[in-house]
């Protein structure tokens, strides 16, 4: 899909703060409220904007112990991959899961309270999944950059 400069700016503004009203966006873009509304609807209807969410402050909800866990499966059978992906979807502590190339098959981003909470997660949930050969965990020291913004 082709985007003109106004669409690009609109998408940038919405990624910064999706709660802005059409009136506020219209003022920032120099357009009418109707024109902004129609552009947003088009971006939603074409699937460019897939949903709106509230981003939580991990410190305020005490889930700021972040772990990147690399997972290696026992084999790369289609049914093992599908089963792992289905099961990991049910793990609420896992906020992101990526099927990757390299030494490991998956990288999981896990947000929990602390090391004890992570240990409990590993022992009772992650290691109970079938077909996991090994895991390797890295713990966040400092968050240098965290953005949901994608340059259009």
Brief descriptors of the model:
Arc Repressor Mutant, subunit A; 152 residues; four-stranded antiparallel sheet; 36% helix; alpha+beta; 5 helices; 4 strands; elongated; Alpha-Beta Plaits; 2 domains
Structural class: alpha+beta
Q: Main β-sheet: number of strands, strand sense, barrel status? A: 4 strands, antiparallel
Question: Can you count the helices?
Answer: 5
State the shape.
Answer: elongated
* CATH level 3 topology of the largest domain: Alpha-Beta Plaits
Portion of residues in helices?
A: 25-40%
Number-wise, the strands total 4
Question: Strands of the largest sheet, in order across it?
Answer: 2-3-1-4
Number of domains: 2
CATH class of the largest domain: Alpha Beta
| Overall residue-averaged pLDDT value | 97
**CATH level-four homologous superfamily name of the largest domain:** Lrp/AsnC effector binding domain/regulation of amino acid metabolism (RAM) domain
Q: What is the H-and-E element order?
A: HHHEHEEHE
Quickly give the CATH architecture of the largest domain: 2-Layer Sandwich
Low-confidence segments, given as residue ranges, are none
Oligomer: single chain
Quote the beta fraction: 15-25%
The value of Rg in angstroms is 20 Å
Q: Alpha-carbon distance between the termini? A: 11 Å
């Amino acid at each position: 899909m082709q985007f003109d400069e106004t669409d690009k700016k609109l998408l940038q503004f919405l990624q910064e703060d999706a709660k802005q009203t059409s009136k506020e966006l219209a003022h920032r873009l120099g357009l009418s409220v109707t024109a902004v509304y129609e552009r947003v609807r088009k971006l939603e209807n074409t699937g460019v904007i897939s949903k709106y969410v509230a981003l939580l402050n991990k410190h305020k909800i005490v889930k700021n112990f972040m772990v990147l866990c690399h997972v290696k499966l026992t084999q790369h059978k289609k049914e093992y991959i599908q089963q792992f992906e289905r099961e990991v979807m049910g793990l609420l502590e896992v906020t992101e899961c990526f099927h990757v190339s390299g030494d490991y098959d998956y990288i999981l981003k896990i947000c929990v309270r602390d090391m004890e909470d992570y240990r409990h997660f590993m022992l009772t949930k992650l290691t109970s999944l079938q077909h996991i050969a090994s895991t390797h965990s890295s713990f966040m020291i400092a968050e240098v950059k965290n953005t949901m913004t994608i340059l259009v």
